[in-house]
Amino acid sequence: MHSRVPTAFLCVLGALLAVAVATHPASAATIAYGSFGPVPPGITFSDVGESSGTDPVPLYGPPEVFSIGLDFDPVDFVATSTGGPADITDGQLNFTVSDTSLSGISFLSLFEAGDYALEGSGTTASAVFAGAILRVTITQLDGVFVAPISLAPVNGSLGFDLVSNAGIVQPWSLGLGLDIAGQLGPDQRATQIEVVIDNQLLATSEAASVAFIAKKDFRIDVSVPEPGTLLLLLVAGLALLSGRSASEPT
User: Fold this and answer.
1) C-alpha span between 214 and 76 (Å, rounded)
2) Nearest C-alpha neighbor of 210 from the set 172, 167, 173
3) What confidence score (pLDDT) does residue 29 get?
4) Is 69 inside a domain boundary?
5) Are 130 and 112 in contact (CB under 8 A)?
6) Distance, C-alpha 162 to centroid of its chain
């Protein structure tokens, strides 16, 4: 069972990331993968790209489009620490999601998974961690471009240590979801969004221990209202319009 990452560790993680980026500027790079879709009911993923300030790219690798989503199969998104020095790997995904059907993008979620190893002797200071932050900015409502609307981001993290979770090829997984429709008015539909996903893996070890964590699966899912839901919204809108018309003086 994984353990929740304490706030104090998140502060340390941020500090380590800042040091890693500052001390490895030559590693900063980007890769553009282009656009994918459209897939029913009219979802397109454009300007898909990744970058890292800590490691050479690719980390995620090129995606494959499926139904309403993107599937990545990372092969080099890893963090390894042996005998003391910490290792952090930071990756970022950027892309735009457009809905030409005007149904509205209601929910965005990510799922990632991989494995880890913790071996040797030591304390809870020998550990591995994974974290993700999902940010969404709405740039189009009901097919009309608007001033950018930044939604409240979501984040999640997990961690394992040598004392409680020693072993090799141990599985881990993490999921996040952002309710886009829930942050909008009842008569608003997001038809284009800009997405930024920050991912980190961290491995820390001691003199006689080894820590390793790898991301091997990464998936993005986009949800739009079901046809029945759209029909209910249309009926509700017509009823509201009819009620307003009836109340107006003739």
Assistant:
1) 8
2) 167
3) 85
4) yes
5) yes
6) 27
Angle at 44 between CA 42 and CA 48, to 5 degrees: 170
Which structural domain, as residue segments, surrounds residue 70?
A: 7-245
Q: For residue 153, which amino acid is it?
A: P
- pLDDT tens-digit readout, 191-206: 999 999 999 999 999 9
The angle formed by the CA atoms of residues 107, 109 and 115, to the nearest 5 degrees, is 170
In a domain, 178, yes or no: yes
Could you give the number of structural domains in the chain? 1
Q: How far apart are CA 207 and CA 67, in angstroms?
A: 48
Q: Give the mean pLDDT of the chain.
A: 86
Those residues whose C-beta lies under 8 Å from the C-beta of residue 173, and which sit 6 or more positions away, are 111, 112, 113, 114
For residue 34, which amino acid is it?
Answer: G
- Give Cα 13 distance to the centre of its chain: 18
Residue 48 domain-assigned?
A: yes
Q: Tokens for 130, please give them.
A: 């994974």
Rounded Cα–Cα distance for residues 98 and 135 (Å): 16
Query: Per the domain annotation, does 45 fall within a domain?
Result: yes
Using one digit for the tens of pLDDT, what is the confidence trace for 126-157?
999 999 999 999 999 999 999 999 999 999 99
CA distances to 83, 116, 125 from 168, in Å: 17, 6, 17
Is residue 143 classed as helix, strand or coil in its secondary structure?
Answer: coil
* Structure confidence at residue 226 (pLDDT): 59
pTM of the predicted model as reported, rounded to 2 decimal places: 0.81
Tokens standing for 110?
């990510």
Gap between the Cα atoms of 61 and 91, Å rounded: 11
